[in-house]
Write a structure and sequence with these properties.
alpha/beta, three-stranded parallel sheet, globular
Length: 72
């Protein structure tokens, strides 16, 4: 059985559409989605109906760490 997890999508020029949202929903273990790109309105509806939290346009720099951050 898959553990509950958050999907992270780092797409700069691509939005999560309803087809991708349904694929994510159908994994049955996703509790949240974070993307550096957008999420279409139909995709947001899929996530909302499945009680999956989501955030769009998350700054990519917040997902990466530099050597200094790792050592600090």
């Amino acid at each position: 059985m898959n553990e509950p997890h958050i999907e992270v999508k780092a797409w700069k020029t691509k939005k999560i559409d309803s087809t991708k949202a349904k694929e994510i929903r159908d994994k049955d273990s996703v509790i949240g989605v974070v993307t550096t790109g957008g999420i279409t309105k139909p995709a947001k509806e899929v996530f909302n109906e499945a009680d999956i939290a989501w955030i769009e346009y998350f700054p990519e720099k917040e997902l990466t760490q530099t050597k200094a951050q790792e050592e600090g």
